[in-house]
Protein backbone atom coordinates (compact mmCIF):
# COMPACT_ATOMS: atom_id res chain seq x y z
CA UNK A 1 0.00 0.00 0.00
CA UNK A 2 2.79 2.40 0.90
CA UNK A 3 4.65 1.63 -2.33
CA UNK A 4 1.49 2.24 -4.34
CA UNK A 5 0.98 5.61 -2.62
CA UNK A 6 4.60 6.63 -3.32
CA UNK A 7 4.23 5.62 -6.95
CA UNK A 8 1.08 7.76 -7.32
CA UNK A 9 2.84 10.77 -5.74
CA UNK A 10 5.86 10.35 -8.03
CA UNK A 11 3.73 10.13 -11.18
CA UNK A 12 1.71 13.18 -10.14
CA UNK A 13 4.91 15.15 -9.61
CA UNK A 14 6.68 13.88 -12.75
CA UNK A 15 6.27 17.12 -14.75
CA UNK A 16 8.15 18.97 -12.01
CA UNK A 17 11.18 16.74 -12.61
CA UNK A 18 11.37 17.40 -16.34
CA UNK A 19 14.53 19.48 -16.11
CA UNK A 20 15.78 22.91 -15.13
CA UNK A 21 13.65 24.85 -15.92
CA UNK A 22 10.56 22.83 -16.87
CA UNK A 23 7.85 23.54 -19.47
CA UNK A 24 5.83 26.66 -18.70
CA UNK A 25 8.35 28.22 -16.33
CA UNK A 26 9.20 31.89 -16.46
CA UNK A 27 12.88 32.53 -15.77
CA UNK A 28 15.19 35.27 -14.53
CA UNK A 29 18.93 34.65 -14.85
CA UNK A 30 21.80 36.74 -13.45
CA UNK A 31 25.34 35.90 -14.59
CA UNK A 32 28.79 37.41 -14.20
CA UNK A 33 32.27 36.43 -15.31
CA UNK A 34 35.30 37.21 -17.42
CA UNK A 35 35.43 38.30 -21.06
CA UNK A 36 38.39 37.33 -23.19
CA UNK A 37 38.59 40.09 -25.81
CA UNK A 38 41.31 39.70 -28.48
CA UNK A 39 42.63 43.13 -29.43
CA UNK A 40 43.49 42.09 -32.98
CA UNK A 41 44.83 44.64 -35.45
CA UNK A 42 43.64 47.56 -33.35
CA UNK A 43 45.65 46.51 -30.29
CA UNK A 44 48.67 45.86 -32.52
CA UNK A 45 48.86 49.53 -33.49
CA UNK A 46 51.75 51.52 -32.06
CA UNK A 47 51.21 52.55 -28.45
CA UNK A 48 48.17 50.31 -27.88
CA UNK A 49 48.42 48.19 -24.72
CA UNK A 50 45.51 45.85 -24.11
CA UNK A 51 44.66 43.30 -21.44
CA UNK A 52 42.91 40.14 -22.68
CA UNK A 53 40.59 39.69 -19.68
CA UNK A 54 37.81 42.09 -18.69
CA UNK A 55 34.57 41.74 -16.67
CA UNK A 56 31.20 40.92 -18.21
CA UNK A 57 27.67 40.65 -16.84
CA UNK A 58 24.38 39.31 -18.19
CA UNK A 59 20.71 39.32 -17.19
CA UNK A 60 18.00 37.32 -18.97
CA UNK A 61 14.22 37.37 -18.74
CA UNK A 62 12.95 34.18 -20.35
CA UNK A 63 10.29 31.52 -20.72
CA UNK A 64 10.50 27.74 -21.18
CA UNK A 65 8.39 27.31 -24.33
CA UNK A 66 8.31 23.50 -24.26
CA UNK A 67 10.33 20.61 -22.87
CA UNK A 68 13.40 21.51 -24.94
CA UNK A 69 13.17 25.14 -26.09
CA UNK A 70 13.86 28.18 -23.90
CA UNK A 71 13.84 31.78 -25.12
CA UNK A 72 14.20 35.24 -23.73
CA UNK A 73 15.53 38.77 -23.83
CA UNK A 74 19.07 39.30 -22.59
CA UNK A 75 20.73 42.50 -21.40
CA UNK A 76 24.49 42.44 -20.98
CA UNK A 77 27.23 44.81 -19.88
CA UNK A 78 30.91 44.65 -20.77
CA UNK A 79 33.98 46.77 -20.08
CA UNK A 80 37.11 47.03 -22.23
CA UNK A 81 40.10 49.35 -22.13
CA UNK A 82 43.16 50.19 -24.24
CA UNK A 83 46.08 52.06 -22.71
CA UNK A 84 48.74 54.13 -24.46
CA UNK A 85 49.23 57.67 -25.69
CA UNK A 86 45.47 58.05 -26.19
CA UNK A 87 43.68 55.80 -23.63
CA UNK A 88 40.36 54.32 -24.70
CA UNK A 89 37.74 52.85 -22.36
CA UNK A 90 34.69 51.17 -23.87
CA UNK A 91 31.39 50.47 -22.09
CA UNK A 92 29.11 48.11 -24.03
CA UNK A 93 25.46 47.34 -23.36
CA UNK A 94 24.07 44.34 -25.26
CA UNK A 95 20.38 43.84 -26.03
CA UNK A 96 19.75 40.36 -27.45
CA UNK A 97 16.94 38.02 -28.43
CA UNK A 98 18.07 34.50 -27.51
CA UNK A 99 16.98 30.87 -27.86
CA UNK A 100 18.49 27.72 -26.43
CA UNK A 101 17.69 24.03 -26.79
CA UNK A 102 18.38 20.94 -24.69
CA UNK A 103 21.34 18.71 -25.54
CA UNK A 104 21.04 16.43 -22.50
CA UNK A 105 18.69 16.51 -19.53
CA UNK A 106 17.93 14.76 -16.27
CA UNK A 107 15.69 15.75 -13.36
CA UNK A 108 18.48 17.80 -11.74
CA UNK A 109 20.31 19.35 -14.72
CA UNK A 110 20.03 20.63 -18.28
CA UNK A 111 22.89 20.86 -20.77
CA UNK A 112 21.98 23.35 -23.49
CA UNK A 113 23.23 25.10 -26.62
CA UNK A 114 21.92 28.42 -27.81
CA UNK A 115 22.42 31.59 -29.73
CA UNK A 116 20.92 34.94 -30.53
CA UNK A 117 21.05 38.26 -32.33
CA UNK A 118 20.77 41.84 -31.19
CA UNK A 119 22.47 45.16 -30.80
CA UNK A 120 25.55 46.43 -28.97
CA UNK A 121 25.38 49.99 -27.64
CA UNK A 122 29.01 51.08 -27.26
CA UNK A 123 30.29 54.22 -25.57
CA UNK A 124 34.02 54.92 -25.93
CA UNK A 125 35.56 57.35 -23.47
CA UNK A 126 38.64 59.17 -24.74
CA UNK A 127 40.65 62.12 -23.40
CA UNK A 128 38.79 64.36 -25.85
CA UNK A 129 35.27 63.13 -25.02
CA UNK A 130 32.80 60.30 -25.52
CA UNK A 131 32.14 58.57 -28.84
CA UNK A 132 29.03 56.49 -29.59
CA UNK A 133 29.74 53.55 -31.90
CA UNK A 134 26.83 51.12 -31.98
CA UNK A 135 26.89 47.80 -33.85
CA UNK A 136 25.01 44.57 -34.50
CA UNK A 137 25.88 41.54 -32.35
CA UNK A 138 25.38 37.78 -32.54
CA UNK A 139 26.43 34.96 -30.24
CA UNK A 140 26.56 31.19 -29.75
CA UNK A 141 26.61 29.59 -26.29
CA UNK A 142 27.02 26.30 -24.46
CA UNK A 143 25.79 26.07 -20.88
CA UNK A 144 24.85 23.90 -17.92
CA UNK A 145 21.98 24.48 -15.47
CA UNK A 146 21.60 22.39 -12.35
CA UNK A 147 19.04 22.41 -9.57
CA UNK A 148 19.96 23.84 -6.15
CA UNK A 149 16.50 23.95 -4.53
CA UNK A 150 12.96 24.37 -5.84
CA UNK A 151 12.76 27.29 -8.29
CA UNK A 152 16.50 28.02 -8.05
CA UNK A 153 19.26 26.70 -10.31
CA UNK A 154 22.94 27.41 -10.81
CA UNK A 155 24.17 28.25 -14.30
CA UNK A 156 27.59 27.93 -15.92
CA UNK A 157 27.91 29.22 -19.50
CA UNK A 158 30.51 29.90 -22.15
CA UNK A 159 29.59 32.08 -25.11
CA UNK A 160 31.29 33.72 -28.06
CA UNK A 161 29.95 37.04 -29.30
CA UNK A 162 30.70 38.54 -32.70
CA UNK A 163 30.56 42.34 -32.77
CA UNK A 164 32.85 45.13 -33.90
CA UNK A 165 32.70 48.92 -34.22
CA UNK A 166 34.90 51.92 -34.99
CA UNK A 167 34.89 54.19 -31.93
CA UNK A 168 38.40 55.54 -32.61
CA UNK A 169 38.28 57.97 -35.53
CA UNK A 170 42.09 58.10 -35.61
CA UNK A 171 42.33 54.38 -36.48
CA UNK A 172 41.57 52.49 -39.68
CA UNK A 173 40.94 49.28 -37.71
CA UNK A 174 37.66 48.27 -36.07
CA UNK A 175 37.60 47.43 -32.37
CA UNK A 176 36.41 44.01 -31.19
CA UNK A 177 33.31 44.46 -29.04
CA UNK A 178 32.65 40.73 -28.63
CA UNK A 179 34.88 37.84 -27.62
CA UNK A 180 34.44 34.96 -25.17
CA UNK A 181 32.45 35.32 -21.96
CA UNK A 182 32.83 32.61 -19.33
CA UNK A 183 30.20 33.25 -16.67
CA UNK A 184 28.39 31.71 -13.72
CA UNK A 185 25.31 32.71 -11.79
CA UNK A 186 21.76 31.86 -10.77
CA UNK A 187 18.47 31.19 -12.52
CA UNK A 188 15.15 31.77 -10.75
CA UNK A 189 12.32 29.81 -12.40
CA UNK A 190 8.67 30.11 -11.50
CA UNK A 191 5.25 29.30 -12.95
CA UNK A 192 1.57 30.21 -12.76
CA UNK A 193 -0.48 27.97 -10.40
CA UNK A 194 -3.03 27.60 -13.19
CA UNK A 195 -0.52 26.18 -15.67
CA UNK A 196 -1.78 22.70 -16.67
CA UNK A 197 1.79 21.68 -17.48
CA UNK A 198 2.61 21.54 -13.75
CA UNK A 199 1.49 19.02 -11.12
CA UNK A 200 -1.71 19.44 -9.15
CA UNK A 201 -3.09 17.62 -6.14
CA UNK A 202 -5.07 14.41 -6.80
CA UNK A 203 -8.70 15.12 -7.61
CA UNK A 204 -8.15 18.70 -8.85
Summed up:
The chain has helices at about 1-15, 40-45; strands at about 25-35, 50, 55-65, 70-85, 90-105, 110-125, 130, 135-150, 150-160, 165, 175, 180-190. It is mainly β and about 200 residues long.
Structural class: mainly beta
- Number of DSSP E strands: 12
CATH architecture assignment name: Beta Barrel
Q: What count of helical segments does DSSP give?
A: 2
Give the N-to-C terminal Cα separation. 22 Å
The H/E string reads HEHEEEEEEEEEEE
**Percent helix range:** under 10%
Which regions have little confidence, pLDDT < 50, spanning 5+ residues? Answer: 5-17, 196-201
The overall pLDDT average reads 86
- How would you sum up the major sheet? 8 strands, antiparallel, barrel
Explain this structure.
- This protein is mainly beta.
- It has a single domain, classed as Porin (Beta Barrel), CATH 2.40.160.20.
- Helix content is 8%, strand content 60%.
- The chain is built from 2 helices and 12 strands; from the N terminus they run αβαβββββββββββ.
- It has an 8-stranded antiparallel barrel.
- The longest helix is centred in the N-terminal third of the chain and has 12 residues.
List keywords for this structure.
single chain, 204 residues, mainly beta, Porin, eight-stranded antiparallel barrel, two-stranded antiparallel ribbon, 60% strand
Write the layout of secondary structure elements.
Layout: H1 2-13, E1 26-36, H2 40-43, E2 49-50, E3 53-64, E4 69-83, E5 88-106, E6 109-126, E7 129-132, E8 135-149, E9 152-162, E10 164-165, E11 175-176, E12 179-190
Antiparallel strand pairs: 1-3, 1-12, 2-4, 3-4, 4-5, 5-6, 6-7, 6-8, 8-9, 9-12, 10-11
Amino acid sequence: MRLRFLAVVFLAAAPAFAGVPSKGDGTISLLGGLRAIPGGDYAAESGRDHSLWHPGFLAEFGYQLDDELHGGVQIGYGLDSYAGKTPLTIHSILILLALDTVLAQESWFTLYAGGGLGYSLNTARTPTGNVEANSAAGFVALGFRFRIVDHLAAVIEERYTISSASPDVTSTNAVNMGGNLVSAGLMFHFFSPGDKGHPTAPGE
